[in-house]
Amino acid sequence: MSAGAAFPWIAKGFVRSMSGVAWNPAKFFREVRSEVAKVTWPSRKETLVTTGLVFAMAALATVFFFVADQVIGIGVRALFSAGV
Predict the structure, then answer these.
(1) What 8-state DSSP symbol labels residue 43?
(2) What CA–CA distance (Å, rounded) separates 77 from 84?
(3) Rounded mean pLDDT, 58-75
(4) Are 43 and 37 in contact (CB under 8 A)?
(5) Is 11 in contact with 4 (CB distance < 8 Å)?
């Protein structure tokens, strides 16, 4: 498989045409500032509630996998000690 078949934009010269674009740092930062102004930022309360939920779900997953690991371990130990 040729590079042109796997990556059609290379075959069309897209990569080569983009290399000649001039980069203006001042314009870039103006655009970044404009985009950041459009963002709807969460309130402090929303951030704290979401963070709490993340920690709660992580704790729940920890307990679940601990219990699952213990049950599987007991099963494996019982399986291998049964033949002795």
Answers:
(1) P
(2) 11
(3) 97
(4) no
(5) yes
Domains contained in the chain, number = 2
Indicate if 48 and 26 belong to the same structural domain: no
User: Cβ(63)–Cβ(70) under 8 Å?
Assistant: no
Pick from 63, 27, 54, 16: nearest CA to 7: 16
User: Which domain, by its residues, includes 76?
Assistant: 41-84
Q: Is the pLDDT of residue 12 over 70?
A: no
69 and 34, same domain (yes or no): no
pLDDT in tens, 46-66: 999 999 999 999 999 999 999
User: Do both 35 and 51 map to the same domain?
Assistant: no
Give yes or no for a contact between 9 and 15, defined as CB atoms under 8 angstroms apart. yes
Q: What is the pLDDT of residue 82?
A: 74
Same domain for 27 and 47: no
Assess whether 50 and 11 both reside in one domain.
no
